[in-house]
Amino acid sequence: MLVLSSPSGAGKTTLSRKLLATDERITMSVSVTTRPPRPGEVEGKDYYFVDVPTFQRMREEGELLEHAVVFDNLYGTPRAAVEAALSAGRDVLFDIDWQGTQQLGESAQQDLVKVFLLPPSAADLEQRLRTRAQDSEEVVHQRMAKASDEISHYTEYDYILINHEVEDSLAKLTAILQAERLKRRRLTGLSSFVKSLRDAL
Ligand SMILES: Nc1nc2c(ncn2[C@@H]2O[C@H](COP(=O)(O)OP(=O)(O)O)[C@@H](O)[C@H]2O)c(=O)[nH]1
Ligand SMILES: Nc1ncnc2c1ncn2[C@@H]1O[C@H](COP(=O)(O)OP(=O)(O)O)[C@@H](O)[C@H]1O
């Protein structure tokens, strides 16, 4: 499970899309949210957009792996899709905040790789929020005001990427993923491979 968190506008969505396009072994976890869709966002691809009662029912019935309130909206990770992907041997990418990351860590610390994305500067963050041009002025203000709080959680993450150039960040994120996949404890079938290798020597 690879988690990508950042203050809003630092580039998580952009980087996630690029990683998904270049790496066949990873699946995106599509969250449910009560936030209204932005122009161009696709139901079932960017989010599952639901109303508050539906979200509450999902939470009460244990259908969410984690959930949190972010910017006054509810967000959560549907459990079934993640479990199915992991059982099929796939890696799963999460674009979730620090609250959700902490909750995933409570149940699966060993299986979690946590990456935090920082903007190069406050001015860059504000410009990115504005050039996305999908949020009202009030929403941009609200997200800038929350950015410092979000950033304060960077110490809870394994890796930090300062997102200057998207392609450079993608190369670094890919390197993190490759290295984490090569961790000895993650290599399924390794002991039998080594045994057969040694038997042949
Ligand atoms: N805990 C949690 N956070 C989520 C989930 N989905 C999205 N988020 C976070 O909610 C915040 C707001 O997301 P969004 O409204 O799409 O705006 P964005 O920050 O521009 O991507 C971001 O920090 C996301 O990482 C989720 O399922 N669980
Ligand atoms: N490395 C980057 N350099 C310049 N602009 C970027 C970079 N990464 C993302 N952006 C732009 O910044 C805006 C916010 O990016 P987005 O991926 O939506 O952020 P997040 O998902 O973290 O809120 C978008 O307009 C995106 O095109």
TrEMBL record:
Query: Where in the cell is the protein located?
Result: Cytoplasm
Which UniProt keywords are given for this protein, alphabetically ordered? ATP-binding, Cytoplasm, Kinase, Nucleotide-binding, Transferase
Chief location = cytoplasm
Q: Which reaction does it catalyse?
A: GMP + ATP = GDP + ADP
The answer to whether UniProt assigns keyword Protease to this entry is no
- Which Enzyme Commission number(s) are on file for it? 2.7.4.8
Q: Which PROSITE patterns match?
A: GUANYLATE_KINASE_1 (PS00856), GUANYLATE_KINASE_2 (PS50052)
SUPFAM superfamilies linked to this entry = P-loop containing nucleoside triphosphate hydrolases
Annotated ranges, domain Guanylate kinase-like = 1-178
A Gene Ontology molecular function term of the record = GMP kinase activity
Q: Which InterPro entries match?
A: GK/Ca_channel_bsu, Guanylate_kin-like_dom, Guanylate_kinase, Guanylate_kinase_CS, P-loop_NTPase
Any single GO CC term annotated in Swiss-Prot or TrEMBL for this entry: cytosol
Keyword Manganese among record annotations: no
Binding site residues for ATP = S6, P7, S8, G9, A10, G11, K12, T13
> What is the recorded function of this protein according to its Swiss-Prot or TrEMBL entry?
Essential for recycling GMP and indirectly, cGMP.
What the entry lists under HAMAP family is as follows: Guanylate_kinase
Give the family, as the similarity comment puts it: Belongs to the guanylate kinase family.
| Protein name in UniProt | Guanylate kinase
